[in-house]
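note to self: dont lose this again. the chain is below, predicted strucutre after it. 382 aa total, dont forget to put it in the shared folder this time
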Amino acid sequence: MPVITNIEDLRVLARKRVPRMFYDYADSGSWTESTYRANEADFDKILLRQRVAVNMEGRTTRTTMVGQDVSMPVAIAPTGLTGMQHADGEILAARAAKKAGIPFTLSTMSICSIEDIAAGTDRHPFWFQLYVMRDRDFIEALIERARAANCSALVVTLDLQILGQRHKDIKNGLSAPPKPTLANILNLMTKPRWCLGMAGTKRRQFGNIVGHVKGVENMGSLSEWTARQFDPRLSWADVEWIKKRWGGKLILKGVQDVEDAYLARDSGADAVIVSNHGGRQLDGAASSISALPAIADAVGSKIEVHMDGGIRSGQHVLKAVALGARGTYIGRAMLYGLGAMGEEGVDHALRIIRNELDLSMAFCGRTDIRQVDKGILLPGSY
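---
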């Protein structure tokens, strides 16, 4: 086993162990992938101010996200097909989040169901991410299932009314069900660990959908259903409709523009996530970290501002907090750990990020994450 010191080590190992079509699904963006790459690269332009002779005892990374205590300002982002990176992947990631004291967010397009997560974590509270689909009866049922499963926040994704084109998925034949091409079969033969895990679980379909929608009983009928379900008519009136039916903590994901941030604030939501869907929708859009400061300055005193996209280290978390984020989300960093080593890999990823966050905060002369602001950044670098 190689020595794992950072998230990149986990990514390299995951690439070796996860079938190409599923690894590429997670580790790719739309079109030229320029926004996907910028999400991470733009963090490097932001420089930290090192301070010395400061008492570094008694450090804490504890804070709150939408009123919930968290061990660090990090949540696990909703990621589709997580259970195809590793058998029972969503359950394993939720368990790791519980141990780490941070929120886990389950995607609508997960392999394990809402009920699977509740059972697998002894009904520990988690968050649920909702896609707005044409079938409003299904949306209402999802909301009620999330409530019954003890979900403590609902995350509504606003930037997937239509699907961005991801070239790697087309080339790999990723579909529901996946196309059994010769290349895919040969690649699967090189992943015995993954195949053995999948053979040992019954969870291989979209657990939140199959069996819960009339006429959708297998992956084939699911493909037809999902193709016509993402709703291009999504509007702020739908957000209001969801808020009334949910009644609990509401987080809006996918805001990149100050004008939309004002509308999110006025919607009565508890938080907004500055996000470009991991660079998987509008290629050529601004990176999340570059969009964050203007949005945080505009609405941060009225609504919690969170961000996701490109976070691969604790230093990235620290820089996002300095620029106004009350919380951050990790998607790919979690998936790399999961694909590499299952639950242990997610544990490892979260330890790496927390350690990097703690040490970097200390080197910047701060001992409490709640005291971090732009003062820890080198002027002119952000």
